[in-house]
């Protein structure tokens, strides 16, 4: 699937190559248009054309802190059930059909409840904006229609499960105790830290709550994306304007009260935990931001001190910010034999140093970079942006506060750190929480709710004038996503890099890809190499920790195609992060001592499912042993010959093929100069590439390849048609044709045809894009004796497609798949970086990708029929099946007019 | 474009569908009897969510909803139920689904309510808004008095029932509950994915299985809905894909569709129509003493055919039916 995603990623990229440094994202964002409707709904609309999507977020200013007395958990139960509530005009099953009719993928809103709010969000194609607003207004107006006892029970079970997890986890118990201490026992935020009272919540009370609190008068509606703000406001006014509701009283926070100096709770079974909690500054004040930096700073400094003193394994520090009050907490799991008082003494000593201005500037800068990176990552997508607009508007009455928010972090100085530490984290203000070593797994408090639950009160008013809802808004045809410009260049050392500038991205995201160009030394070698590069040898600091200390994050992965490291850092730390990882990869030592441990998982390859067995056999029979996709049937032979030195040499030989994909707010010349400096700083020149690159052709193909395993319970069959799916060639039609196989056409869908033959197993359509294997593939899981029927159903289906039995809606859906996928990718810096990496991985030029992209935009029914005639030819169909297939070899061969090549699993070593 | 077949009338009239609700019932509504009791504290109107059916209850009712799988169908019950001063008040709906479609009830469904009684002392046939119903009074197997009103609405059987012990049964309150009931037919959005359109129809109208409705093969999507009542109202909407190389104008296509209707019945009226930028025709036809108000809309890709049928001209031309015609939305998402 990774391969499939990679293909899709690069499939849809443009090569509108502009001059280096030209930005596609300039002016992508505008200021927010805001209005309050007569019914009290606060509306915020911002045009943001980073991608052709729109985020619609409804923020009800009601959360767990306002739960009714005796009904703690109400907000959480509501957030669980809210997306599934049907309304009087559109039942859920009707929704799905409506989406299909409109040529849209069905979307389900996401809902969550925190202490202060309940957020309901959808992210939709820009063309579906009116449609989505209409649906969301219907939800706001009529969601109480769908409340039933069964749905409420489901929601309560989910909340009860979460509570159980919290109760049974020592870490979560500690968190709750620290927060309770920080906010204080009388705080409005203390409510959600106590167990829910689900017995008192029923359908009637949920309906009442929805009607009284989840109304326009108590909500913010935020729309962000590729929209015309004025037109959007007008639509919002039309759809939401006639809904009614009354505002609910504002939350009030009583004066903070400090609890007992020390609280003891049930900790984990094997260690003591200790924590300190302080009441601190409100959300979005400068003190709040400074305390965030301080939390990161103490996270770095105290972790070091505690480990050096052998007191604890690390430290957890956090400023938990809320609108009316905040909590600043620190906590550690203690080493055996260490006491909470020792921990407190060391922690307070560190705090005292900060209070006295004794602050390490390197650690301070890392802390700042780290918090900015973390906040920026949380603000990256449209949905996140929409939520933050609502938060800013609610807290500081300025929906466009984001730049000042980030500026607030940037202007923090060491002196400010000392100042907030002196004011908020004084010794006498702190409360010590001790999690005692205990085997007790529950500290739940008795439920305060008693008595009979209130009876249902149904007071739905009759909706006399609801003609608005009879007719959904139009959904225009898809228009192609606006694409970023891509710089395709290479450094003086020959490393290819693809770069897209995104001026609104607070982080630079880069992916380092090392493709496997040579024959792999063994099955599993890719993962073993990855482990060597990430896990430190004894006495070394791991790569992700090194990066974290400069405010950067790291994720690595490896598969049969390449090794990938994904890094995100603030722009000013880009070079440092790149240098760090580049040097690390080039100097990592692969010690022989660790080899056995790393090899072990590959000695017993997972071949426990029919899919894995079929995959292994198909690759083993299709490729030669020197090929990278070859899967050995006996992995141990290769692994026995493997040495760490061999792996290290192999990886070093691959490093010259390293390629980079970079997205962020940088000038092209900055990127180039940074890459040149990093290349010069390398410890020694890379060895020249070896010459034994893959030049192995797959074995001659047999059209009907069967592996007979009489003991298997199922058959896994792959139907494959060769297809020219290279960039710049015919990839557009091939991908759309593959998608089309999965949709309803005028004739029954393939799944329906298979069901008609009694085949109800899993069906998947994919296409392969490998130099050695360009194919449209349909994979089906069958029962014994169904291979012939499945082959017949497939042949009938492709005949229907070749005859043009394709509805316009099926063509549109197939074409829209690529649009939707790309639009989502362009919503985040990491998504764009993934697209660039896919291009790197497939050696695709921007020009070839752009050509494919244009072809996707031009797809219509005629093109699809022509593609079906060209590629779905019965005499080119290749069939591979694994399972109890011997009995059907002859009949299927006769269907395909070819001879079956049968391999019995007993004749060779079993995978 | 393929010429339109006789799908329209063959399917609807030939299937005998319109006859299935034509068993004799009392032709006129029987006036509701005693006046509602004086307003007393606690009485308030409650509605069954999403169904537009409500009643006055003396106290807040509980909401129940559950499904009951049968051998070849699925019954869905919704109920508001309240107990007050020894009496039980129930407002219930029963819907029947077969093969995921609402299926048509016939008036024999009304007869099932006899089994709720040991003795029936009074039976009155009722009609409300042209829909058949019955009111039953008597005693239950437990010898307690019971008053029940049953109404048949499209696919839905609606009942209001009151019972209680003899000493507790207050006839005045029971009548108030029964007589102050209201029905405001809600409409909901129906969509045809294959036809790429949506339309609104009354929620209680029974969606007919495609096989029963009998759309011709030229139709890529569509459905029929039977609402019933003494006028035997039904709704139908379908779409056919137009060939991209069809040389005819939209008006010519619309005329061809109207002409096809004329081969089976008599076209009483046909006038041109502009609907959201598309051309079409508004047509009134009569076939075998049934009237059909038909709207044809021709877009670049599709020909849509909407229809309200019934036993008399007034009911199919009623302004209320405009809600159906004006709710058509098509989605030209493909080229």
Task: Describe the protein.
The complex is a heterodimer of chains A (911) and B (335). By secondary structure, chain A is an alpha+beta fold. Chain A has 30 helices and 23 strands. In chain A, the strands form 4 sheets. In chain A, strands 1-2-6-3-5-4 form a 6-stranded mixed β-sheet, sandwiched between helices. Chain A has a 6-stranded mixed β-sheet with strand order 12-13-17-14-16-15, with helices on both faces. A 6-stranded mixed β-sheet of chain A has the order 20-21-19-22-18-23, sandwiched between helices. In chain A, helix 4 (129-142) packs parallel to helix 8 (229-240), helix 9 (286-308) packs across helix 10 and helix 9 crosses helix 11 (361-378). Mean pLDDT of chain A is 83; it is low at 1-27 and 439-465. In chain B, strand 17 (266-275) and strand 18 form a beta hairpin. The longest helix of chain B is centred in the last third of the chain and has 13 residues, at 250-262. Chain B is elongated. At the A-B interface, helix 3 and helix 26 of A face strand 1, strand 3, strand 12 and strand 13 of B.
Query: What characterizes the major β-sheet of chain B?
Result: 8 strands, antiparallel
The beta-strand count of chain B equals 21
Residue-averaged pLDDT of chain A, rounded?
A: 83
Q: Which structural class do you get from the secondary structure elements of chain B?
A: mainly beta
Which class do the helix and strand fractions of chain A yield? alpha+beta
Radius of gyration of chain B using CA atoms only: 23 Å
- State the separation between the terminal residues of chain A, measured CA to CA: 22 Å
Total count of helical runs of at least 4 residues of chain A: 30
Low-confidence stretches of chain B: 1-40
Question: What share of the residues of chain A does DSSP label as strand, in percent?
Answer: 15-25%
Silhouette of chain A: globular
- Helical amount of chain B: 10-25%
Major protein interface:
A-B, 54 and 47 residues
Biggest β-sheet: strands ordered side by side in the sheet of chain A: 1-2-6-3-5-4
Parts with pLDDT < 50 across at least 5 consecutive residues of chain A: 1-27, 439-465
> Strand percentage of chain B, roughly?
over 45%
State the oligomer.
Answer: heterodimer
Radius of gyration of chain A: 30 Å
Q: What's the overall average pLDDT of chain B, rounded?
A: 78
**Biggest sheet descriptor of chain A:** 6 strands, mixed
N-to-C span of chain B: 17 Å
